[in-house]
Design goal:
- By secondary structure, the chain is mainly beta.
- The protein is built from one helix and three strands.
- The protein has a three-stranded antiparallel beta sheet with strand order 1-2-3, covered by helices on one side.
- A hairpin with a 2-residue loop joins strand 2 (about 35-45) and strand 3.
- The protein is flat, with a radius of gyration of 16 Å.
């Protein structure tokens, strides 16, 4: 279950909504990045290529759900 005000994460979306999934990751040279998810998936029978960022995998990633200051660049 999600906390109020939180959006669904990419891995939750796959876990709960995808009927099929083939994960694609790495460079073939042993390099992987846990924060980027690339997958072939099927949702309600429709095939898709899913690319997303898993912010929970990187504790240093910016939190876009936090309130921002009222300042804007160039304003």
């Amino acid at each position: 279950a999600l906390a109020p005000g939180r959006s669904t994460g990419i891995r939750q979306l796959l876990r709960h909504a995808a009927t099929e999934q083939v994960p694609l990751s790495g460079t073939g040279q042993g390099e992987t990045d846990k924060t980027i998810l690339l997958s072939l998936a099927r949702f309600r029978g429709f095939p898709c290529i899913l690319l997303g960022q898993d912010r929970s995998a990187n504790p240093r990633s910016p939190r876009w759900d936090r309130p921002r200051s009222g300042k804007r660049d160039g304003a």
